[in-house]
Design brief:
The complex is a heterodimer of chains A (235) and B (215). Chain A has 6 helices and 12 strands. Chain A has 235 residues and is of the alpha/beta class. Chain B has 5 helices and 13 strands. In chain B, strand 6 and strand 7 (113-114) form a beta hairpin. The chains are: A alpha/beta (235), B alpha/beta (215).
Chain lengths: 235, 215
Amino acid sequence: MANKVYPDAKSALEGFTFEGMSVMSGGFGLCGIPENLIIALRDSGVQGVTVISNNAGVDGWGLGLLLETKQIKKMVSSYVGENKEFARQYLSGELELEFNPQGTLAERCRAGGAGIAGFYTKTGVGTLVAEGKETKVFNGETFVLETGLVADLSIVKAWKGDKEGNLIYRKTARNFNPMMATAGKKCVAEVEILVETGELDPDAIHTPGIYVDRIVKGDFEKRIEQRTITKRENA
Amino acid sequence: MAWSRDQLAQRAAKELRDGFYVNLGIGIPTLVANYIPDGMEVTLQSENGMLGMGPFPYDEHVDADLINAGKQTITALKKTSYFSSSDSFAMIRGGHIDLSILGAMEVNDRGDLANWMVPGKMVKGMGGAMDLVAGVKRVVVVMEHTSKDGASKLLKACTLPVTGINVVDLVITDLGVFEIDKHGSQPMKLLQLADNVTLEEITAKTEATFVNALR
C-alpha cells in the first residue's frame, strides 16, 4: 500500500523540488493558502521558481516569504497589490510578472488538469491580455485562445482530508485549490484535520484522492488581510 | 451640488431588480448593498467563490475562511453556497450573473472601459474585472465624472489600456446618468442630471458626444 501521509511539510516536499520548477499555490489573498508548504518550500532553498497563484501574499507572510528570499523568478497572477517587496522587485526588473484575468487563470488551471490544451474565451478580447494570441469568431462574437496550465508541483490547502488524499475545503478557502490540485504533475495537500480513510462522506468530497500524491496535517495561523466587522448596538 | 458617494450608490441601486444575481466591485459599488430596496430579493456574488453574501460579521464571528473579493471578512446567509473560483467564473463568464456594478478610470461612448492600469505606475492587476465585463449580462459603471485635475473621464476614446471593449451599458457619475448602446450604433444618451447640475455644466465637462434624452 502506497502511503500518502507525511509527518510534516518539509518531508512532504522532499524529492519534489528542483531549480527552475513551476509551482501552483492555492489560495485567494491569504485565505486558503498552504501556509506550511510555502514555508517548507522556502526552507528547501529551491531557486528560480515560477509561481502560479492568484495573489503574491503580503510582506512577511504567504508567498511574500518566498519573495523575501528571492526564490521566485516569475509570478503568474491576477492581482498583486498587497505586497511592497513584490512591487520593489518588479519595478527593479528582478521579478517577471504575467497577469492573467482571474477567471482565465482559474480556467487555465482547470483545463490543464483536465488535459485540455486550450480554450476560447471572451475575457480580455481587445485588451493587452489578448495581444499576440489567436482569436476566433463564434456566432458573431470574438473569442481569444488561452492555454491550459500545468505545473511541476501544486501545493494546496484543504480543511479536512483522509489518508487516501480525499479533500474537503471550507467556505471561501476553497477558491483556487481544487483546480490547482488537478494541474500539478505532483500535488501535496495540507489539511487542518486528517482522518482515517472512510470517515469522510464520499458525496461531500471536493477533490478525489487520485489528484493528491502526498498529504500532511498542518497547524495554521490563518491570517486575515481586512478584518471588517459590524459593531453591535449598545443594548 | 453633484451627487455624493452615497447618492451615487443609491442611484446605482435603482438598477437592481427582484431576483437578480449581482456582483459588486470595490469602492462605491460596495455601498450599493446598503440601498437594496426593502422587499427586493438580490443575491450578491463574490468572485472568489460564494453566492449569497451577507454583511460584515460581529467581532466574535469573524472567520478567516470567509472573505469577499475585496479580502474583507463577511458572513453567510441561509441561501449561501460556496464553490471553486473556476465554478465562480463559469457563472460570470457563462452569462449567469444579471448585473455587475463597478468603478472606472475612463469610459467611452461605445462602452469601452478602462479600470485596471495606468502605464508607468505600479500595476496591481485586473483581478476579475475583465471576466466580469466580458461575461455579465448588464454592466453599470459608477465613477466621478472628471479626474482630480478636472479632465473628463467620459471620452470619445479611452487613453488608458482597456479592460474590455463595448462592455458598458450604463454610466452613473456624480453629474448624471448616461446610457450606452454598446452593441449598436445609437449615440450615447444623457438620461438624468444629478441634483443641481445643469445641461450646460455636464456638456462642458463631457468630452464624449451624447444626445440629450432627459425625461
